[in-house]
């Protein structure tokens, strides 16, 4: 059985568009790099030089602008992605720093509490004086960030008696 086919009207005819040669593409690229917008005169001149319809030149320019814009958007996206990664890393570093500072602040707060509670005692004697001096050393060490106030990291004794 033969199927009936509608005769193709001019509107529905398939035109076989010729692909551009490398030389034609190079000429279009060169002109595009000079100016990415086409005025009617340039379009006609290029179409004549290339031996293609002016509409094909116009479409090539339109597609080239779209590809260029897409490429630019991809580059912008990559740059923004990198900035985001940097900001996230910096944020994580700062969060760690905040936690470290909170712990240090809590330690200082505890030392102050201990210092205040020991200084409110009315004990007199060398043991009381010794513990008060130790608390002062701990407080000072906490302020300057030394972990163990009785052992200096560089061997220097901050609290040794100078003779």
TrEMBL record:
UniProt xrefs under CDD domains: homeodomain (cd00086)
Feature: DNA-binding region: 13-72
Molecular function per GO: DNA-binding transcription factor activity, RNA polymerase II-specific; sequence-specific DNA binding
Main localization, broad class: nucleus
Every Homeobox domain range: 11-71
InterPro entries according to UniProt: HD, HDZip_class_I_plant, Homeobox_CS, Homeodomain-like_sf
Region (Disordered): 1-20
Family note: Belongs to the HD-ZIP homeobox family. Class I subfamily.
Biological-process GO terms, alphabetical: positive regulation of DNA-templated transcription
Coiled coil spans: 63-111
Entry protein name: Homeobox-leucine zipper protein
Location(s), subcellular: Nucleus
Keywords: Coiled coil, DNA-binding, Homeobox, Nucleus, Transcription, Transcription regulation
Naturally occurring in which organism (per UniProt): Sesamum radiatum (Black benniseed)
Pfam families referenced in this protein's UniProt entry, alphabetically: Homeodomain
Biased composition (Basic residues): 9-20
PROSITE patterns: HOMEOBOX_1 (PS00027), HOMEOBOX_2 (PS50071)
Function according to Swiss-Prot or TrEMBL: Transcription factor.
GO-annotated cellular components: nucleus
Taxonomy, superkingdom: Eukaryota
